[in-house]
Amino acid sequence: MNGIYDRLKSFSRQGKSIKIGLAGVGQMGRGLLSQISGLDGMDVVVAADRNTENTFRTFEYLNMGPGDYHYVETRKWGTKETVRIEGIELRSDSFSGKTWKHVREARRKNRLVYCDSLSLLFGDSEIDVIIDATGSPGAGAFIALNTLSAGKHLITLNVEMDVTVGPFLRDLSAKHGVVYSLSAGDEPPAAKELYEFPVMLGMDIIAAEKGKNNPLDREADPGSIAAYAAEKGSNPYMMTSFVDGTKTMVEMACLSNATGLVPDCRGMHAVKADKHQLLDIIKPKSQGGILDKSGVVEFVIGDLAPGVFLIYTTQNNTVKDELRYLLLGEGPNYLLYRPYHLTSLETPISVARAFLYREPTMVPAAGLISEVITVAKKDLKAGDAIDRIGGYAVYGLIDRAAAAREGGLLPIGLSEGAVLKVDIEKSRPITYNDVILPADSLIHKLRDMQESRGY
Questions:
Q1: Which partner for 220 in 216, 243, 247, 395 could form a disulfide, CB atoms 3.0-4.6 Å apart?
Q2: CB within 8 A of 201, min separation 6: which ones?
Q3: What is the spatial distance between Cα 42 and Cα 274, in angstroms, rounded to a whole number?
Q4: Mean pLDDT of 266-271
Q5: What is the CATH number of domain 370-452?
Q6: DSSP code string of 390-436
Q7: Are 197 and 336 in contact, with CB atoms under 8 Å apart?
Q8: 3.30.70.1350, 3.60.15.10, 3.40.50.720, 3.30.930.10: which CATH number matches 2-186+344-357?
Q9: Cα 210 → chain centroid
Q10: Among 137, 136, 177, which residue's Cα sits nearest to residue 154?
């Protein structure tokens, strides 16, 4: 970490910086804009979001006036064109020389460029790294395909996209010689940090886990939790994905795909426990615990959030003696605990690692080990269209990818816009055969390409 800091300071002293394009200026994007503005050696130079009203509220919240940014209007200076990337035709915005003149003028005045088109990020030759802070699988797929193909590094907070097409994007980044990475500070990378430490030392992993302090209510929807979301200052759809458990399922599937750890059962166990109870509960049944096997991902409801933790063991008696001497317990199992994760505040670490060292913080290195399947939140009728993650229709549950494939179960990242062909009763998993999928959906095309390559 000191090496990164020193190199960024050196960059700054030379009048240089890592140029960042930010996709999404909502809650996460707001934090990123504020955080990066105070750091040496990196700058957000372009921010893009289709919701201009929301973005200007963010600027107002950050006390940014018109003299701090320059708004590039797509409707005024952009035209639509069809491009082909990786054999896929996309409709994209193309900008005139006048647009880039405005961008250069904003740079000269040290202003942030804001645009309602993501395409400006990919076409700006000065941008080194793009951060995806949208949280939408569909938008994330568009951002990722364009970013990596343009030869730019991509740091994503979009775990929903990663668990759907992450292995494909991992390989696409390698093809173009750039970095695709999950962002430091999110719970999966924070948990992976803990995982790597004992694995490197030859320990055996029992469980990698996160705490959850939101109430777990599978039936929650943006209407029922509107007041709770407002109290937390969060988008009600995002907050619903936390409360109905989908976000936790996605995060643990992301960790599973990075490490090869698996869910012990569909949906995981979701026990209530505090730090002092973990070693008594999260252990194999042969030891009196709840697990059918070791090497799993799990989550616990209680005051452990916002932390992540890892339970490990060893068969080496000398190591056990050393751990006992170091006051880590009597065994046979031991606990590592990180009591925090700083979400987007840690994203600059991943930006710097990608640009300076060409290293990802975390990728789905193990492939598609776990899937997040789509489950009916209420009784649904034929003809109903499934809304977005954190909406009114469905929630997600983690399962082994092999089991999901065998059952033909629909991944949550592909569910938005799917139209039901049959009635689905509450709590029933939804299959591919139950729905008509959206036509010409980019994330579906990337998923098809991923599956054709054997993931």
A1: 243
A2: none
A3: 39
A4: 96
A5: 3.90.1210.10
A6: TSSSEEEEEEEHHHHHHHTBPBGGG-TT-EESS-B-TTPBPBGGGEE
A7: yes
A8: 3.40.50.720
A9: 15
A10: 177
Rounded Cα gap, residues 453 and 455, in angstroms: 6
Mean pLDDT of 301-305: 85
| Residue scoring higher pLDDT (38 or 45) | 45
Residues 354 and 356: their CA atoms lie apart, in Å, by: 6
C-alpha count within 13 angstroms, C-beta hemisphere, residue 57: 8
Identical fold for domains 2-186+344-357 and 370-452, yes or no, is no
- This prediction has a pTM of 0.95
Mean pLDDT in the chain? Answer: 93
Kindly list the distances between the CA atom of residue 263 and the CA atoms of 58, 193, 270, 280, in Å, as whole numbers in the listed order.
38, 19, 11, 19
pLDDT value of position 302? 85
Task: Please check whether residue 404 is in contact with residue 371, taking contact to mean a CB–CB distance below 8 angstroms.
Answer: yes
- For residue 395 the two structure tokens come to 């929630």
Q: Per residue in 386-443, pLDDT tens?
A: 999 999 999 999 999 999 999 999 999 999 999 999 999 999 999 999 999 998 899 9
Amino acid at 343: T
